[in-house]
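In this supplementary section we document a worked example of the pipeline. Step one takes a protein sequence of length 125 as its only input; no multiple sequence alignment statistics are reported here. Step two produces a three-dimensional model, which step three serialises into structure tokens for compact storage. The input and output of this example are shown verbatim.
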Amino acid sequence: MTMTLSGGWWLIIVLVVAGVLFAVALSRRDNSQSKQRPTKTTVQPTADIVKLNQMIGQHLPQMNTTLKHNRILVQVGHHKRLMLTMDKKLQAGSRQLGEAMVVNFHKLPSAEVLKQTVQASLKSS
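The serialised model returned by step three reads:
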């Protein structure tokens, strides 16, 4: 006796399998929506970045700077030309990121090194 399943039975089987998969997905989902999300706090810049920004203001007053948590964006006119970072995890040196140069320091540079680095980076970008 051969039995074939009609279209109605196939529809029921597919709907049951989809329902089971949906139930499994609901049970495994992350309940991050039910948790309260912390309010976004403003992250203060590090002390070294603040000192570096002050050095730029003293020794390169023609540069417009924007201070972020771990970086300084240097603008010439309305174009972001240079990003100075202080991160010991990254390799010290410079690299190109789009139109802007990214220069990473491991420690606070001297004023002379800072001038040379900024001027050389702005010429090369």
